[in-house]
Amino acid sequence: MELLEEIAETRAGTGDPAALVGEFRRTAVLVPTVEEGRLLSAVHGGVRWIFAFTHEAALARFALARGSRPDAEWAYVSVLGARLLDAVVPQLGEPAGVAVNAADEDGSMLFPPAPGVVPDEVAVGGGGAEVA
Questions:
Q1: Which domain holds residue 113?
Q2: Angle CA(111)–CA(5)–CA(98) in degrees, nearest 5?
Q3: Looking at residue 26, what is its pLDDT?
Q4: Statement: residue 127 has pLDDT above 90
Q5: What confidence score (pLDDT) does residue 115 get?
Q6: 36: left (phi over 0), alpha (psi -120 to 50) or beta
Q7: How confident is the model over 76-109, as pLDDT tens digits?
Q8: Three-class SS string for 59-108?
Q9: pLDDT tens-digit profile of 12-58?
Q10: Is there a domain that residue 132 lies in?
């Protein structure tokens, strides 16, 4: 099953959380970059959220929602979900997760800094980080 289908099933209450995380880990997502190639993120509720998108149209909706001009170009990289969760999140030094398709009201999904999602050593409540 594709990531968007797993997200839809989870949002409908019929999905399998482990299958959702597994599909995210196997999926290449688009992550906007800012100055010096840093990944676009924001802090909310004491957690740093890396923004990721399943396709360019979802990224474009996010850009427009943030006030970007329709013709503006956004730089991005394609990254496997597993790399975001296993390599990038631990390097941030604070509670962090991934927000997928953040501008899509019915298609967004959060992958929080929880055990089973990110490595235990950086998971909140898993012997790792604590939310401030």
A1: 3-120
A2: 15
A3: 98
A4: no
A5: 95
A6: left
A7: 999 999 999 999 999 999 999 999 999 999 899 9
A8: HHHHHHHCCCCCCCCCCEEEEEHHHHHHHHHHHCCCCEEEEECCCCCCCC
A9: 999 999 999 999 999 999 999 999 889 999 999 999 999 999 999 99
A10: no
Rounded distance between C-alpha atoms, residue 54 and residue 92, angstroms: 22
- Within a domain: 62: yes
- Compute the distance between CA of residue 90 and CA of residue 99 in angstroms, rounded to an integer: 16
Give the chain's domain count.
Answer: 1
**φ, ψ dihedrals at 27, nearest 5°:** -100, 135
CB atoms within 10 A of CB 16: 13
CB proximity list for 81: less than 8 A, separation 6 or greater: 3, 24, 25, 26, 27, 28, 29, 52, 98, 111
Query: Would you state the structure tokens that stand for residue 51, as one six-digit string?
Result: 């923004």
Structure tokens at 106: 């019915």
Structure tokens at 103: 């501008």
Whether residue 38 is contained in a domain is answered as yes
Residue 126 lies inside a defined structural domain of this protein: no
